[in-house]
């Protein structure tokens, strides 16, 4: 990275300090945007890697995690949903008796549990029947529709935001100077970046280095054969859904501490971008999800201002081009077929 | 077909989909109007009844909602929420000769869809310039301006056009124009560009969630100058998005809770009593839509009792009556021109003042 | 009591009955051969024991425990391994990963490593290719892998579905050597084999399956000389 | 038994080579197959037999060397092109159209021998051709003894029956050269001897040249006119069954104790 | 007549959605999970809308009268065919979800282009689109959509019966084996893709006047997924599947209107239940397994 940066700086000899600062700022922006995409995509890719299907409900779980944590941490609802007059913690001053970290943990666990329920009721019956895997896609779409509209029914379409106090006394932004130019990045972004890296490393370790990972890969490739080796397919799938839900909930909450929960469709809007991310990175590849997220984030950050109208298209243009050059995605493994 | 009692007025707005944030405020506004006018005795003794149909988020949903209302025999329709939906659904009402009042359709060309189409939402071009002038009043040294807008939102796109023209007319230098999507959450790229351009005024056209996030990120990353928010930010929903960082945003308003008319004060009081915040513009405009129907119907009823009318005749008559009248509404005194375009006298510029991280108010500026 | 007992087992594919009221037993430590023409239901029988197929009627009892309600992985846990028809190697995993997954249920890490070494000794080809993806192996190499993988679990009962399929003659002999050795160690083996003569020479008893039912059964030494069996399966 | 064209090479391989990373699966292999003969290909597991078939049918591009079919260069031709020229094969790991019926499997393979284009099909101007396709499909199923199960899905057939269906499918494209990759795998001795007769019959009836990969030595010796032996990707012997089975290199590499 | 007045739009929408479901069905016939249909639908709509409202074409419109509408269908179909070829040839090297996502990317790119061009009216879109053949009521669009559906179904039936249809099925089942059997996969996959593109484009061209307006929100990712649901819930192995699926799923939210706030929740539940309990899709409920065609008599004699 540093080398690349210095190369770029050399390229702009006239005003090296300024342009290097600009570059650095864009780089940081890209990483921060990308880590949000990545953290969303992780849970997506987990389920894809084992079942080979896209869980469209992931966006809803992502949002629901945020709502759950919010409920536990703040305990207050808006003006339009069924729950508008319900006081969750009657008599407790300042909303909730539990602090943000505990709420985050509980909220994420609940989201994980929701993942398990979804597996049990919307996916397993299809698997048991050996149905067209695409049907699972429709089923998860149905689940997403149910969840999103239930949220809207319960708490309305309003925007909720975590109070800025949840991260204690951390300043809103980190800043330092390069030459005379200040470089700034929001603290929340740094937190998200770090968390997604930690999760990546953990997952990478579990899946790449342990027996669990090996078993998961076996289940992913061929459930019948895996079961013939004594691997409990259902249990592993359940664990995967729990993990995916947990990560989704956690990610949703973290992201919403940065951007607020902008309504029940909050998570769904990430859905498509998240899909692009995991396909770009290589389906089923955990590091791929992170690399894909960062690549798209960086690409968006480096779109010149006069083309900002096409910023959104950039992600998909990259996706399209990369797929044509490297059909298995950046870190995906080509499907080998021997005849 | 005879006119049924109570008199049914249709409301077709987006109660679901990601437009619901706006739609649900319109439902609230319309409901408050229904209650208020029925307490006043409705149409000279005959109560009104609002019939709600969800347009959802797409054009087909809007057409379906309109068709359902027309079939159910409403005398007129308040709706839909978005201009794009209006372009799809209004022609249906026009052909069925059912009067429509657009509560929030601000794009160019809406009243021109037909004789039966009018709106209570002022077109963008007349609202926006006030804010720029106000900003210059607050800080005459402003020279360099950054303009940002949500390119996928029809309203924001036309609003930003007005903003940019006004800025140029005021001899300001628009140094950067940045686009985003209403679904975006991360604006660090745009903010960096703005900071790099060293501007002393930022003008944002977007909706509450994206606009609020943009403001928050501008402030957190160190922008210190004035911010003008377009009409999409004109809602207390924004408070929970940018929190304390909302403080100081200038907003051009087509509606202000501080409008002094008696009916507005009643409306604001009612709304506050129920929802513990000031009513947003979307609620006020929906309220106004219902009010205009009610008052026009009252006029007709005085000449000839409503329940003696044939429905089709009444709809035609109602359309005529709407266009000739003048109304004291929460938006102030309004009337319509021949095409159905709104004549609104009062526009406002407010500045956001935050009490704490979640509550604030729009303070009316002279 | 028999180690494995199939008691009036019927298995269906949809409406088609593939095996009907099939009864057979395998005693502890015994090698039993199952032969029959293509489509007779041999594979179906083995898949039913491993619970990859639903048993429609009857019971399959292993060491006194009814298997018919268990999940496939639970069956493996009881000590039944299968080298399936069509090899079913995990194509996207390396040879070594396939073998290690064969020992998935074993906790004795050190022994597993030792067994791995032994497998590579038996099948030098696999040793050379330990890091190659299993899907790119040649047909015969995959067959060796499938058998070795089944052995890695150190089963009490080993189900082999046509182990010699696609193997060169030398390797076929190696396989039967292994079968004999395992039998000597007390492992019970149920063997489905088209190479009937060879299989019967290595087994105590033989069942002959025809259109889903057992038509002959008895000591292999006797059946191998039986006119009717000779004619139908041993190519005269 | 062999026709008058016997002796003329129909297929010529010159220095065919295929590498997979560091592994040379097929190494500089040259041989000729004569029109009308039954040509056996044997060798230990992993010797490169299947890979050689893949090179000949265009499924794997060669790393080097050249291949000629009826004097035409087909070294880098796509599989469908090779097929339409008249080379047809079965697969070691059976590749039937599993979710389609046996009948459809056989009909599909007549693609290269029929001509109805898109529009002719849409306007129903392909009736006569369709009738012929269907008739031939039934005949071929008869030939392999699966006609009474024509409407069953291919996936539902047992292993041995799937092999038969694959042969019928390969025949349906009316090939000049038929490549069979372990056709007898999964068949018992009785079935194997039926198969031997069957291969001879179709060779005569359809004027075929046949290449067979097979591990069952008696079958190969009995069936083939000539045999090539591969070991570690290299061709170590070519010749008639008797001479090959006496070749010490072959005995050492392949036949082992059984010989 | 009243019925048509009241429910005409809905009915026409159902047929329209059935057609869009079919447009996805074609690539699926050759095993390609393409979600590009909404893109071609949007493109077709824009082509028609531009031809019908842009002042540059005023002279053409005057000269052609009602034939302008026919022209819009042809032009839309043609442009979609060309674009389908251009996108299809490189994209169809991809498989499964990768292909699906590449086509989604294509749809998204089209959408952002539409959002930024002047001829497409930017975010507001194009409006005031004249009514086809002077139609007054929405139900009259049934007069366009129904015949198109009939023709498409007839076309599909013939296609599936033919040699081309067989080649599609072979590729769907096993591309490599099909290739080895002499079927050039790329050519047939592109053909299937283009047929879908053309159909979607024509439906788009008919829909622009039908919806009165056209904007960049037509043909989004949501639409891609909706169309896919039509096919899968309806039944992906039978041309009646997308028709039934499209019709019923498009009708569902409207039928559920009386449930008010709960309607979309229930709608979602129905989707889940349908995928769980209709293994063959909706068509599975209606079609008994047809007795397979018996062996032709002649062959029997020959034996
Ligand atoms: N998935 C399936 N669906 C329907 N029928 C099936 C299925 N699998 C097998 N069959 C049928 O069940 C019967 C028994 O098949 P099975 O595979 O057990 O035979 P087999 O004895 O193993 O034959 P082979 O020697 O050819 O492997 C056959 O008639 C076969 O067609
Ligand atoms: N795609 C590939 N990648 C790496 N190695 C490969 C690949 N395909 C084949 N090989 C290797 O090339 C060698 C030759 O394989 P091939 O399938 O041709 O053998 P074969 O002679 O047909 O053996 P068998 O009799 O066991 O079928 C094998 O050792 C195999 O592992
Ligand atoms: Mg078998
Ligand atoms: Mg081979």
UniProtKB/TrEMBL annotation, chain A:
Keywords: Amino-acid transport, Cell inner membrane, Cell membrane, Membrane, Transmembrane, Transmembrane helix, Transport. One of its GO terms (molecular function) is L-valine transmembrane transporter activity. It is a multi-pass membrane protein. Signal peptide: none annotated. The keyword Transmembrane applies. It is found in: Cell membrane. The chain crosses the membrane at residues 35-54, 61-82, 102-122, 134-163, 183-207, 236-255, 275-302, 314-336. Pfam families: BPD_transp_2. One of its GO terms (biological process) is D-alanine transmembrane transport. Its main location: membrane. It comes from the Bacteria. InterPro entries: ABC_transp_permease, BCAA_transport_permease. GO terms for cellular component: plasma membrane. Belongs to the binding-protein-dependent transport system permease family. LivHM subfamily. This is Amino acid/amide ABC transporter membrane protein 1 (HAAT family). It comes from Deinococcus yavapaiensis KR-236.
UniProtKB/TrEMBL annotation, chain C:
The keyword Repressor does not apply. Gene3D superfamilies: P-loop containing nucleotide triphosphate hydrolases. CDD domains: ABC_TM1139_LivF_branched. Keywords: Amino-acid transport, ATP-binding, Nucleotide-binding, Transport. InterPro entries: AAA+_ATPase, ABC_branched_ATPase_LivF/BraG, ABC_transporter-like_ATP-bd, ABC_transporter-like_CS, BCAA_Transport_ATP-bd_LivF, P-loop_NTPase. GO terms for biological process: L-amino acid transport. GO terms for molecular function: ATP binding; ATP hydrolysis activity; branched-chain amino acid transmembrane transporter activity. Residues 4-236 form the ABC transporter domain. Pfam families: ABC_tran (PF00005). SMART domains: AAA (SM00382). Belongs to the ABC transporter superfamily. This is Amino acid/amide ABC transporter ATP-binding protein 2 (HAAT family). It comes from Deinococcus yavapaiensis KR-236.
TrEMBL record, chain D:
InterPro entries: AAA+_ATPase, ABC_AA/LPS_Transport, ABC_transporter-like_ATP-bd, ABC_transporter-like_CS, BCA_ABC_TP_C, P-loop_NTPase. CDD domains: ABC_Mj1267_LivG_branched (cd03219). It holds the Pfam family ABC_tran. GO terms for molecular function: ATP binding; ATP hydrolysis activity. It comes from the Bacteria. GO terms for cellular component: plasma membrane. This is Amino acid/amide ABC transporter ATP-binding protein 1 (HAAT family). It comes from Deinococcus yavapaiensis KR-236. The lineage of its organism: Bacteria, Thermotogati, Deinococcota, Deinococci, Deinococcales.
UniProtKB/TrEMBL annotation, chain E:
One of its GO terms (cellular component) is plasma membrane. Pfam families: BPD_transp_2. One of its GO terms (molecular function) is branched-chain amino acid transmembrane transporter activity. It is found in: Cell membrane. InterPro entries: ABC_transp_permease, LivM-like. The keyword Membrane applies. The chain crosses the membrane at residues 6-28, 40-58, 70-89, 139-156, 190-211, 223-252, 264-286. The keyword Membrane applies. Keywords: Cell membrane, Membrane, Transmembrane, Transmembrane helix. It is a multi-pass membrane protein. Coiled coil: none annotated. This is Amino acid/amide ABC transporter membrane protein 2 (HAAT family). It comes from Deinococcus yavapaiensis KR-236.
């Amino acid at each position: 990275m540093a080398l690349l940066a210095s190369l770029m700086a050399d390229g702009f000899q006239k005003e090296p300090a300024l342009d290097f600062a600009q570059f650095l700022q864009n780089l940081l922006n890209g990483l921060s945007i990308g880590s949000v995409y990545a953290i969303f995509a992780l849970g997506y890719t987990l389920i894809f890697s084992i079942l080979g299907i896209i869980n469209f409900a992931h966006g809803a779980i992502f949002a629901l995690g945020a709502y759950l944590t919010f409920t536990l941490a703040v305990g207050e609802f808006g003006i339009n949903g069924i729950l508008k007059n319900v006081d969750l913690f009657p008599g407790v001053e300042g909303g909730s008796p539990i602090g943000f970290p505990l709420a985050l943990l509980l909220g994420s666990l609940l989201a994980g549990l929701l993942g398990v329920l979804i597996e049990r009721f919307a996916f397993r019956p299809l698997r048991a029947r050996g149905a067209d895997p695409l049907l699972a896609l429709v089923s998860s779409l149905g689940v997403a529709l149910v969840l999103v509209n239930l949220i809207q029914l319960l708490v309305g379409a309003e925007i909720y935001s975590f109070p800025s106090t949840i991260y204690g006394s951390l300043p809103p932004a980190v800043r330092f100077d390069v030459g005379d130019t200040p470089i700034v990045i929001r603290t929340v972004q740094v937190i998200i970046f770090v968390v997604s890296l930690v999760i990546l490393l953990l997952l990478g370790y579990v899946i790449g280095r342990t027996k669990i990972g090996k078993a998961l890969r076996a289940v992913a490739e061929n459930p019948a054969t895996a079961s013939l080796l004594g691997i409990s397919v259902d249990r592993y799938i359940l664990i995967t859904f729990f993990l995916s839900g947990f990560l989704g909930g956690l990610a949703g909450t973290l992201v919403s501490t940065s951007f607020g929960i902008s309504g029940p469709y909050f998570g769904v809007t990430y859905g498509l971008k998240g899909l692009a991310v995991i396909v770009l990175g290589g389906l089923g590849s955990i590091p791929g999800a992170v690399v894909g997220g960062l690549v798209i984030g960086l690409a968006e950050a480096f779109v010149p201002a006069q083309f900002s109208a096409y910023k959104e298209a950039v992600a998909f243009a990259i996706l399209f081009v990369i797929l044509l050059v490297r059909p298995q995605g950046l870190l995906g493994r080509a499907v080998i077929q021997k005849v | 077909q005879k006119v049924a009692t109570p008199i049914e007025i249709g409301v077709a707005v987006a109660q679901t989909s990601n437009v619901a944030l706006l739609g649900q405020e319109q439902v609230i506004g319309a409901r408050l109007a229904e209650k208020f006018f029925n307490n006043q005795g409705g149409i000279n003794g005959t109560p009104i009844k609002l019939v709600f149909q969800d347009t959802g988020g797409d054009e087909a949903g809007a057409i379906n909602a309109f068709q359902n209302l027309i079939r159910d025999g409403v005398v007129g329709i308040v709706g839909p929420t978005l201009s794009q939906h209006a372009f799809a659904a209004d022609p249906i009402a026009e052909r069925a000769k059912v009067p429509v009042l657009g509560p929030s359709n601000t794009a160019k060309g809406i009243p021109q869809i037909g004789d039966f189409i009018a709106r209570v939402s002022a077109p963008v071009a007349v609202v926006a310039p006030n804010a720029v002038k106000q900003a210059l009043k607050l800080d005459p040294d402003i020279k360099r301006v950054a303009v940002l807008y949500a390119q996928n939102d029809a309203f924001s796109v036309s609003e930003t056009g007005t903003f940019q023209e006004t800025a140029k007319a005021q001899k300001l230098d628009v140094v950067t124009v940045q686009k985003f999507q209403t679904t975006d959450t991360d604006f660090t790229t745009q903010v960096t560009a703005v900071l790099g351009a060293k501007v002393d005024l930022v003008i944002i056209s977007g909706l509450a969630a994206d606009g609020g996030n943009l403001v928050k990120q501008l402030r957190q990353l160190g922008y210190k100058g004035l911010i003008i928010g377009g009409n999409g930010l004109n809602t207390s929903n924004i408070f929970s998005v940018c929190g304390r960082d909302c403080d100081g945003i200038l907003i051009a308003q087509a509606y202000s809770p501080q409008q002094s008319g008696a009916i507005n004060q009643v409306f604001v009081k009612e709304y506050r009593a129920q929802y513990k915040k000031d009513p947003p513009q979307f609620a006020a405009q929906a309220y106004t839509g219902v009010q205009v129907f009610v008052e026009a119907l009252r006029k007709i009823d005085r000449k000839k009792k409503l329940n003696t009318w044939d429905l089709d005749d009444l709809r035609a008559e109602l359309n005529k009556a709407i266009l000739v009248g003048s109304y004291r509404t929460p938006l102030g005194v309004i009337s319509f021109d021949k095409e159905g375009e709104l004549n609104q006298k009062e526009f406002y510029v407010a500045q956001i003042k935050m009490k704490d991280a979640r509550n604030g108010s729009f303070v009316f500026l002279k | 009591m028999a180690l494995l007992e199939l008691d009036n087992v019927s298995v269906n594919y949809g409406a088609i009955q593939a095996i009907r009221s099939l009864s057979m037993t395998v005693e502890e430590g015994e090698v039993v051969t199952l032969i029959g023409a293509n489509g007779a239901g041999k594979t179906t029988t083995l898949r039913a024991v491993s619970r990859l197929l639903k048993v429609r009627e009857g019971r399959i009892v292993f060491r006194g425990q009814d298997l018919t309600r268990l999940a496939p992985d639970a069956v493996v846990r009881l000590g039944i391994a299968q080298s399936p028809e069509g090899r079913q190697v995990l194509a996207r995993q390396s040879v070594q990963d396939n073998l290690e997954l064969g020992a998935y249920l074993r906790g004795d890490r050190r022994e597993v490593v030792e067994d791995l070494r032994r497998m590579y000794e038996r099948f030098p080809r696999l040793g050379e290719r330990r890091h190659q993806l299993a899907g790119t192996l040649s047909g015969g190499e995959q067959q060796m892998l499938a058998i070795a993988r089944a052995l890695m679990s150190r089963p009490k009962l080993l189900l082999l579905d046509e182990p010699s399929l696609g193997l060169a003659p030398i390797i076929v002999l190696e396989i039967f050597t292994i079968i004999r050795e395992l039998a000597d160690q007390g492992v019970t083996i149920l063997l489905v084999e088209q190479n009937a003569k060879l299989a019967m020479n290595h087994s105590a008893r033989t069942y002959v399956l025809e259109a889903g039912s057992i038509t002959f059964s008895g000591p292999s030494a006797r059946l191998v000389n039986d006119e009717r069996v000779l004619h139908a399966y041993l190519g005269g | 038994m062999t026709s008058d064209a016997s002796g003329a090479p129909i297929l010529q391989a010159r220095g065919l080579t295929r590498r997979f990373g560091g592994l040379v699966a097929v190494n500089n292999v040259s041989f000729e197959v004569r029109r009308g003969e039954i040509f056996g290909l044997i060798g230990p597991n992993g010797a490169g037999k299947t890979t050689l078939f893949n090179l000949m049918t265009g499924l794997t591009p060669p790393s080097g060397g050249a291949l000629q079919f009826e004097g035409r260069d087909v070294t880098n031709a796509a599989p469908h092109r090779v097929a339409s020229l008249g080379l047809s094969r079965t697969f070691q790991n059976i590749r039937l159209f599993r979710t389609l019926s046996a009948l459809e499997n056989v009909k599909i393979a007549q693609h290269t021998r029929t001509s109805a284009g898109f529009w002719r099909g849409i306007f129903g101007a392909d009736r006569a051709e369709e009738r012929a396709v269907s008739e031939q499909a039934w005949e071929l199923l008869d030939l392999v003894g699966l006609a009474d199960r024509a409407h069953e899905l291919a996936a539902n057939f047992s292993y041995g029956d799937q092999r038969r269906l694959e042969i019928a499918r390969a025949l349906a494209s009316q090939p000049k050269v038929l490549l069979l990759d372990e056709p007898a795998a999964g068949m018992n001795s009785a079935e194997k001897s039926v198969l031997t007769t069957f291969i001879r019959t179709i060779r005569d009836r359809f004027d075929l040249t046949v290449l067979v990969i097979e591990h069952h030595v008696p079958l190969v010796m009995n069936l083939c006119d000539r045999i090539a032996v591969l070991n570690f990707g290299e061709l170590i012997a070519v010749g008639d069954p008797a001479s090959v089975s006496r070749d010490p290199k072959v005995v050492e590499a392949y036949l082992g104790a059984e010989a | 007549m009243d019925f048509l007045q009241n429910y005409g739009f809905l009915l026409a929408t159902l047929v329209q959605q059935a057609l869009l479901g079919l447009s996805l069905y074609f690539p699926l016939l050759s095993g390609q999970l393409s979600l590009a249909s909404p893109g071609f639908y949007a493109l077709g709509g824009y082509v028609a809308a531009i031809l019908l409202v842009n002042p540059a074409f005023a002279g053409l419109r005057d000269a052609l009268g009602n034939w302008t509408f026919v022209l819009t269908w042809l032009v839309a179909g043609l442009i979609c065919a060309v674009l389908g070829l251009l996108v299809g040839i490189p994209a169809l090297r991809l498989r499964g979800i990768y292909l699906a996502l590449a086509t989604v990317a294509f749809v998204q790119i089209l959408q952002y282009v539409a959002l930024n061009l002047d001829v497409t009216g930017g975010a507001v879109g194009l409006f005031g689109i004249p009514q086809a053949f002077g139609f007054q009521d929405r139900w009259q669009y049934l007069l366009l959509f129904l015949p198109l559906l009939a023709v498409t179904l007839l076309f599909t039936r013939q296609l599936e019966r033919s040699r081309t249809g067989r080649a599609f099925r072979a590729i769907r089942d096993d591309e490599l084996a099909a290739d080895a059997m002499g079927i050039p996969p790329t050519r047939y996959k592109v053909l299937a893709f283009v047929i879908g593109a053309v159909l979607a484009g024509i439906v788009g061209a008919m829909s622009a006047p039908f919806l009165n307006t056209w904007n960049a929100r037509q043909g989004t990712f949501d639409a891609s997924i909706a169309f896919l649901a039509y096919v899968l819930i309806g039944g992906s192995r039978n041309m009646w599947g997308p028709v039934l699926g499209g019709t019923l799923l498009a009708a569902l939210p409207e039928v559920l209107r009386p449930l008010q706030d709960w309607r979309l929740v229930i709608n979602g539940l129905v989707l889940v239940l349908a995928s769980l309990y209709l293994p063959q899709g909706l068509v599975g409920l209606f079609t008994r397994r047809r007795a397979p065609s018996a062996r032709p008599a002649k062959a029997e004699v020959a034996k």
